[in-house]
Amino acid sequence: MQHETFIDVVMEAAGLDVWENELVSGAVTRKATKVYAELGYTEEEAGDCMDNIFSIVHPDDVDRMKQAIDDHLRGAVAKYQCEFRLKTKSGAWIWYANSGKIVERVDEPNAKHLIGVTYNINARRQQEEELKRLNGELAAQKAQLETLNISLHSMAMTDALTKLPNRRLLIDRVEQALNAAKRSKQLGAILFLDSDNFKEVNDQLGHEAGDLLLKDIARRLTGAVREADTVARISGDEFVVMLENLGTDSTHAASKTRDIAEKILECLSQPYTLGSAPWINTVSIGATLMHEGHQSFDDLCQQADFAMYAAKKSGRNTFRMYEPTRKD
Hints:
Blueprint (H helix, E strand, L loop, with lengths): L2 H12 L2 E6 L4 E4 L2 H7 L3 H4 L3 H6 L3 H15 L6 E8 L5 E13 L2 E13 L1 H36 L9 H18 L3 E8 L2 H8 L1 H18 L5 E6 L2 E6 L6 H19 L3 E3 L2 E3 L3 E8 L6 H17 L5 E3 L7
Parallel strand pairs: 11-12
Antiparallel strand pairs: 1-2, 1-5, 3-4, 4-5, 6-8, 6-11, 7-8, 9-10
Helix pairs in contact: 8-9, 9-10
Pfam families: GGDEF (PF00990), PAS_3 (PF08447)
Keywords: Coiled coil
InterPro entries: DGC-Regulatory_Protein, GGDEF_dom, Nucleotide_cyclase, PAS, PAS-assoc_C, PAS-like_dom_sf, PAS_fold_3, Rev_trsase/Diguanyl_cyclase
């Protein structure tokens, strides 16, 4: 087999179509005939100048192709490489790739011959586009799942009615506060609040009015405490406030706790708009100081709950601090 015939067979087997263009004059000195045939053009329709080639290149790819040729011509890259779309005679677009190199000829010192091959990459590009689409879908699904997880986590940690932290989130925050107290020696406090009149609201005005009351209590509570404090609804008409960073002196911490509790009592005793007439609803508050010696949330709640019942026994709409020696 002659050398040229051998090369042609290899090129055909590899799906490569050889071409040659003279860049100075813009003449096509060897056409990529197999490519044109694949596109549905006759050899005459292919033309003899590079403008004919650019006329069937996708408008979005023309500048990139010319830039790739210029980069190689300037010596910025070792060879010319470009991927682009060509228009078939029927109007469809097919992806191809070029790979070529400038060749200097002794007999044409002023000419710039670009010799290379063109090969069909349409199947690969379609696979890449499909993969890109699938990756986009996966990314969107991942984002949706992350949003859903955040929403589910929020739902698991938030009271549905008042949007306050629920018992689960409160326990987590109390445990964090207890761990922090071991390092900082700072005191905190747990305030246990129970409505004095909630059952009457439900019985006389209905559960919808009761829900409105709970939401208003939550709003007022949040406004009455410091921004860093935690307000939670742990059941029915029971709320808990966790105070942190009250100092290292227990007397001072108890005084600050009392000040905040009295502010809460004043705020929550103001009339509520439920139905056609204003409604008075008060709360009883029990509190206990939170320090490094406490081992659990349950210990704190038990003490604050004990103090809260002492407040109810003393006439309601009042506050009591837990006293370890108290028996009533």
